[in-house]
From TrEMBL, chain A:
A Pfam match: DUF6814
Superkingdom, taxonomy of origin: Bacteria
Lineage of source species: Bacteria, Pseudomonadati, Bacteroidota, Chitinophagia, Chitinophagales
UniProt entry keywords in alphabetical sequence: Membrane, Transmembrane, Transmembrane helix
Protein known as: Uncharacterized protein
TM helices/strands, residue ranges: 7-29, 41-65
Automatic annotation (TrEMBL), chain B:
A Pfam entry, by short name: Sugar_tr
Annotated organism of origin: Lacibacter luteus
Main localisation: membrane
Lineage: Bacteria, Pseudomonadati, Bacteroidota, Chitinophagia, Chitinophagales
Gene Ontology cellular component annotations, sorted alphabetically: plasma membrane
InterPro entries xref list: MFS_dom, MFS_sugar_transport-like, MFS_trans_sf, Sugar_transporter_CS
Alphabetically ordered keywords of this record: Cell membrane, Membrane, Transmembrane, Transmembrane helix, Transport
Domain named Major facilitator superfamily (MFS) profile: residues: 11-507
Protein name, UniProt field: MFS transporter
Length: 81, 509
């Protein structure tokens, strides 16, 4: 199970950039096809909000790959480390 | 310190009432999006007005994570009690303020700007409220009933929506004995009442909360001088805690958020905009579904004390992934106007009117039809009148006001009930799950952020993104569902792989 958790980490790390690519390419296409202020605002909001989350997904994947989730903390002292 | 059962109901009641009122305040804005658009945004382009309001709505959700950081930090530094008192005052003040802002026709662009700022303030306050209330109750609850007691806090989001829908419907129909006049008054000025009423509710809740004492676990920590000096740094700059924040977000709250908003908001939006259901019917369907589904928050919260939190949440997500498309397909197929137009229809009512514009006159004909199954709908035809009184039909007829017969209405209410049942599975145990994941001294901050990114950003944007997808890919009315389905599926896989099903026996550390 721990091996699967670690290998799946690669998938989560790829999911981050993939989401960014999909988001930015769709935003560009949509803004080009409807260059009005509403389209620009809504897609800017999506890009600004979801890119940090995608980065978080990459970090999560990295931690998973490193085996950080092999054993979850049993008490708060482990969490605070 | 051993948490005592005595007085727990007082604690739950006081915490839940305030949280319910905050949700109520937050949701009346979303529920009245169209009316508010007419009041505060330029009326020349209704779509732009609606989008602006939805953007404001989204802004309300996007600032929630910032509220979680600001108030979470305060809650971990000065205490739970005063922090969530502050969020309540902010929320009540902002809601009351929206009810007082003059319309765009009176003060111009200042109106939407003030409304936007007040909406942002609402988002900030909500971001601080939930984590405080959930933490406060959990820190009073005995270990074997933590899921059960915190599930009462979990009912407040749905009940806040319920109360907001109820107040809106009552106000909409209570302003005049003539229903049409009552609705017109509501759209003109009556929409302000639900906002203004909030100040009374908030006043009562502040009074109750002032009488509450600090969380025993936090008070002990403070008396020992062990509170966190920098909760933000300890929560997000320390790998040990950051990895748990990320796990909470990607393995639980992001899926919970989309399931919540698909069941309780996108469903309503779909019934109204795709199925063209009558305003009152789409809302009363949701009200009935909420009434019957709400007890299940407590059922699943309580069950999670016995079998663990993980699998209940995962099954809730799986149900959404597998059943959203079949359920929404039923909504769509049962309100297929094109199919009804093939039948022999009875004309119930027909009204004609003319509107004179700058260089043309429009003749508008509204016809109410009834199908053989007693379903009614309105067809609106707009023709251009020429000088010789010739009519030119220049637009496709529009269909709206679908009024279902009793059998279909009951079926729709049952299907929405099912959607909300999935919500109760993912949402009922989640407060206890999040509380158990983090240490007391940074709990408020650490649990608030993943909750509000999951619920606020992923969930709150669901109706918006789903609707947007239908405007990009116009051939499939159900395309919008792929957003919650994909997000819930990813979250379900992460949750299944990485979260364990253990119940933390000790949250005192």
């Amino acid at each position: 199970m721990n091996k699967l958790k670690r290998y799946a980490g690669i998938l989560w790390m790829l999911l981050g950039p993939l989401t960014c690519y999909f988001l930015i390419s769709t935003a560009i296409a949509e803004i080009k096809s409807k260059p009005v202020i509403d389209t620009k605002i809504q897609w800017a909001v999506f890009v600004i909000v979801f890119i940090p989350i995608a980065i978080g997904m990459v970090i999560f994947g990295w931690y998973a790959l490193q085996g950080e989730y092999d054993q979850l903390p049993e008490n708060s002292d482990d969490v605070a480390d | 310190m051993k948490p005592q059962n005595k007085g727990i109901w007082k604690i739950i009641g006081a915490s839940s009432l305030g949280t319910l009122i905050e949700w109520y305040d937050f949701y009346i804005f979303g529920s009245l999006a169209t009316v508010i658009a007419n009041q505060f945004f330029p009326k020349t382009n209704p779509t732009a007005a609606l989008l602006s309001t939805l953007a404001t709505f989204a802004a309300g959700f996007i600032v929630r994570p910032f509220g979680a950081l600001v108030f979470g930090r305060l809650g971990d530094m000065i205490g739970r009690k005063y922090t969530f008192l502050l969020t309540l005052v902010l929320m009540g003040g902002a809601t009351f303020g929206i009810g007082l802002v003059p319309g765009y026709d009176k003060i111009g662009f200042a109106a939407p700007i003030i409304v936007l700022l007040l909406r942002l303030l609402q988002g900030l306050a909500l971001g601080g409220e939930y984590g405080g209330a959930a933490t406060y109750v959990a820190e009073h609850a005995p270990a074997d009933k933590r899921g059960y007691f915190t599930s009462w806090i979990q009912t407040t989001a749905t009940l806040g929506l319920f109360v907001s829908l109820g107040v809106i419907l009552l106000t909409r129909h209570g302003l005049d004995s003539d229903p049409a006049k009552s609705i017109a008054k509501f759209n003109d000025w009556g929409w302000r009442i639900p906002f203004l009423v909030s100040i009374l509710l908030v006043g009562v809740s502040i009074y109750i909360r002032l009488k509450m004492s600090e969380s025993p676990l936090y008070a002990k920590l403070k008396s020992e001088g062990k509170t966190s000096v920098n909760p933000l740094k300890e929560s997000f700059a320390h790998k040990g805690n950051l990895k748990m924040v990320l796990l909470a977000l990607f393995g639980a709250t992001m899926g919970q958020g989309v399931i919540w908003y698909t069941g309780q908001f996108y469903a309503q939006s779909f019934l109204e905009n795709v199925c063209k259901l009558d305003f009152d019917q789409s809302r009363t369907i949701l009200i009935w579904a909420i009434v019957f589904a709400t007890p299940f928050f407590v059922v699943f919260g309580s069950l999670s004390d016995r079998i663990g939190r993980k699998w209940i949440m995962i099954i809730g997500m799986l149900a959404g992934v597998l059943l959203y498309r079949p359920i929404f397909t039923m909504f769509k197929n049962d309100t297929n106007v094109k199919e009804w137009l093939q039948q022999e229809l009875v004309v119930v009512k027909q009204d004609s009117s003319t509107t004179v514009l700058v260089n043309q006159t429009l003749a508008i004909t509204k016809t109410v039809f009834q199908t053989k199954d007693n379903i009614q709908f309105t067809e609106t035809k707009t023709d251009t009148l020429q000088a010789n009184n010739m009519r030119i039909a220049d637009t496709k007829p529009l269909y709206s006001g679908v009024t279902l017969n009793t059998a279909t209405y009951t079926k729709f209410a049952a299907l929405v009930f099912l959607l909300i049942l999935f919500v109760t599975m993912v949402y009922g145990p989640i407060a206890a799950f999040l509380v158990e994941l983090f240490p007391t001294k940074i709990r408020y901050t650490s649990m608030s952020l993943p909750y509000h990114i999951g619920n606020g950003v992923f969930g709150g944007l669901t109706p918006f993104i789903a609707t947007l997808l239908t405007t990009i890919y116009t051939n499939d009315a159900l395309i919008g569902l792929w957003y919650p389905i994909v997000v819930a599926a990813v979250c379900m896989i992460i949750g299944t792989l990485y979260i364990n099903n253990k119940i933390d026996p000790n949250v005192n550390d």
